[in-house]
Design brief:
Among the domains are: 32 residues; 39 residues, no CATH class; 31 residues, no CATH class. It contains 2 helices and 8 strands; from the N terminus they run ααββββββββ.
Length: 265
């Protein structure tokens, strides 16, 4: 056997025999194919049902682009806010009798510039509006003190500070000033009106000072001045206790002669 014949015989023995090989089809057949079609059909039906339910919910709840969001309930409507740990941080409850908000800080802001109009927390309540108007007939009732640098009435309206059943006290360590630039200042009371200065003085500065309804003293019947004509000039006298009274003026002082009025006080 030559070398060429040996190589040829060896290659023929190494070639695979294909006359007995079987061919296997590639793909999904039989019950597997039917199951795949069934799951695809089921998924399609589920998508259609979900789409129909979504459209129905949007229609029933009136969820539209141009209309506002309306939440309705036969009882309460509660909106909760929670942090990343699931803890409740804020709650808004709208009920038949009240609207309750539970949070660390409650704010109401203006829609134009975002300015805080109202804010409330555990320490204080702040009203940032330009004007606070109370229209109730009984006004506003405060259980404790109210701090404000300015109290002003509306234009063409009177400002009235009144305590119907108790006292009205105005105090200031550096002074209290009451002025009426274009009108009168009146102070009336049922009993005594006290003007007291512990260290300074009471200063009355006006062109005319009038003391009305002062009692008028009279001379004893033996006094020669008792038979005088109608008196038009009087002398202002002071009792030892500070009471003022009038005495008919004479050539000299007549306060001593009509001092019997001091016994009535």
């Amino acid at each position: 056997m030559t070398r060429e014949q040996y190589i040829l015989a060896t290659q023929q023995n190494n070639l695979p025999r294909t006359e007995n090989a079987q061919l296997y089809p590639v793909g999904i057949y039989g019950w597997r194919k039917r199951c795949l079609y069934f799951f695809v059909l089921l998924l399609l039906v589920t998508m259609i049902v979900n789409l129909a339910m979504t459209i129905w919910i949007l229609k029933v709840m009136n969820f539209t682009v141009d209309s506002p969001l309306v939440l309705q309930s036969d009882r309460n409507v509660t909106v909760n806010a929670r942090n990343h740990m699931g803890q409740l941080t804020g709650q808004l409850t709208v009920g038949a009798d009240a609207v309750e908000a539970q949070c660390k800080r409650f704010e109401v802001r203006a829609s134009e510039d975002g300015r805080v109009l109202f804010s409330a927390d555990e320490d204080e309540i702040t009203i940032g509006a330009e004007k606070l108007k109370v229209t109730g007939t009984e006004g506003a009732v405060f259980g404790h003190s109210v701090e404000t640098p300015h109290i002003r009435a509306e234009p063409s309206q009177d400002l009235r500070l009144e305590s119907p059943t108790r006292s009205l006290i105005m105090e200031a360590p550096r002074g209290v000033q009451v002025s009426a630039a274009a009108g009168d200042f009146k102070a009336t009371c049922r009993k005594e009106l006290h003007l007291q200065s512990t260290e300074g003085e009471i200063f009355l500065n006006a062109k005319t000072i009038r003391l009305g309804n002062l009692p008028t003293g009279s001379f004893p019947s033996s006094s020669p001045s008792s038979s005088s004509s109608r008196q038009t000039v009087y002398e202002l006298c002071v009792c030892p206790n500070g009471k003022l009274y009038l005495s008919p003026a004479g050539v000299g002082s007549t306060c001593q002669s009509s001092s019997n009025i001091c016994l009535w006080s």
